[in-house]
Amino acid sequence: MVGILYSIVRTIATFTWNFCDILIILVSIGIAERYKHLNEVVRYKILNNLTERIHWQKIKNKYVIMNDLIEEADNFVSPLILLSCFMNVYQICVKISEGIRYYHHNNYIFLKLLQMHD
User: Fold this and answer.
1) Tens of pLDDT along 45-66?
2) What is the pTM of this model?
3) Which residue ranges run through the membrane (predicted)?
4) According to the 3-state scheme, what is the secondary structure of the chain?
5) What is the rounded distance in angstroms from the CA atom of residue 46 to the CA atom of residue 59?
6) How far is CA 90 from the centre of its chain?
7) Are 32 and 92 in contact (CB under 8 A)?
């Protein structure tokens, strides 16, 4: 019964871990792409000598809005990043524990086989 409960909790933790990582990645990529697009618009107009058609006030307003978005995303994503780090440490500890148990189990069997052979 305890093994089944442990397996269920571990499966839920793994799904949560993956979901958090994917959400962090998607939010980061989305914000980075917004900044990239704004920079490309300005770069295009400057390279094509369209500087008189650049509405600097509009660009500044978009930039300010994007900075506000960054603050909101930071407030949302920061706890997820912390949770993700804790979940990564947990997964590492579980894998190390499984590896140590596997090693000791196989080493024990190997020693018993050697004792039987002698």
Assistant:
1) 888 888 777 788 988 999 999 9
2) 0.66
3) 12-32
4) CHHHHHHHHHHHHHHHHHHHHHHHHHHHHHHHHHHHHHHHHHHHHHHCCCHHHCCHHHHHHHHHHHHHHHHHHHHHHHHHHHHHHHHHHHHHHHHHHHHHHHHHHHHHHHHHHHHHHC
5) 13
6) 15
7) no
